[in-house]
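Continuing the series of single-chain predictions for the mutant panel. This is the parent chain; the variants come on the following pages.
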Amino acid sequence: MKKSTLLTAISVAAIVPMALLAISINENKAEQQALNTVPPIKKFETRSSEWGKHYQRQYDSYMQTKKSDKIDDVLEGNPALLVLWAGYGFSKDYNAPRGHYYMLEDNINTLRTGAPVDGNTGPMPTACWTCKSPDVPRLIDEIGEEDFFTGKWARHGSEIANPVGCADCHDNETMKLTITRKFLTRALDAEGSLKAADASHQDMRSLVCAQCHAEYYFKKTEWTDKNGQKQTAGVVTFPWANGFSVEAMEKYYDDISFADWTHKISKSPMLKAQHPGYEIFKTGAHGLNDVACADCHMPYVREGAVKYSSHNVGSPLDHMANTCLNCHSEDEKTLKETVARKLERKNELSKTAMDVIAKAHLEAGKAWELGASEAEMKDILQDLRHAQWRWDFSIASHGSFFHAPEETLRILGSAINKGQDARVKLRTVLAKYNAADYAAPDFSTKEKAQEVIGLPYQKLVEEKKSFLGSLRTEWIEEQKKKGLYDPASREGMVFNTSYAPAK
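Parent structure:
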């Protein structure tokens, strides 16, 4: 072969791969540029599939949350909970949370939201929709915040059509992260350590989560409607004015004499911690070091030259190469073992606290039955209120044992102490009424606990099934007529609950 021919062959062999690489890079750059170009999405577009037309990777990853479909009946595994929540909705039905894909459906199907027959009936207020759907900020914009938070949950059944999605966290014009619930802005400004207006992009990667993963209560707010009628709204409010700690919020509630409900057996004015994930996260190593929720729960992934945040929100342990191992030098096995130990310690103390507090409620009920006075019971009921609030706060955010293990164990320890204080005082009262040897009834199974608290479980189930076959189907038809219903949001969904498991 001539030297010139050989050189030509070598040159072609080198140039062709380089040319192909250049073409690939240009194509990927063009794709990334297209992704960075904000498409037209209408204001308050609550159907995530419409956003997915422009952000297919993010949408496809979001739809992966449907794989988190298992129903885990928490009451079955922890029957003491029924006694702790006697007289409150959580004693009826409480399952471990599933993926965002199921957020709205699980809210509608749970026994807690009851079986309304029209827009004015049922046990729950409208505020129970607040964190389940992007239709909430849309509706608030249409009718006003106070109007939205007035009335019964079923009132908005035909309007709340779509599960948690794109519009909950993103501005439709810029795609920037945005706070869509004003109550978070008010709470941040009241707490003061981070004003909403000063939030950085990294702050926002936690704050959009904090809109829903935080403790709240329904603040009674008087207002006048367009017809001049006086109304009372139950406005979602975060109790952060004194700070994020369990004691700070406890004081907030005590100062305004607020109670979520009066315990059916002990008559204690109770507090129900909802899901204070953000508050506990702020006290842990990750929160104190400016790690955002999205860093661990929505890690960045790459496809070629395209980098995007996965919207398959779930446990960081499922994707450790993209989450934990970005910062930690330990191997995956060691880290998982560490997390398992933290969970085991939390569960041990939590079970102790549940047993102590549940027995205290039942002993208090016996004291009332025997004729104890309000003066004799006052301090006991306060101990019960504080004990259960602290226990609930420490476990209701689900990931507390990981977010802030030391703080979680500290709070659980104080919950046990408060519960024991109540029981010691109750022994004195019971002894006065000749019942020093009283033993709480058996609540070791879900069925036994339901009997102890007098819960008409089968009646609740039958009423719920009737609602799902009647008013619920009417809501869907109305949503379709209004152009709100998104079939893609239910694609492949199987009806599954603790009272009617999927077959």
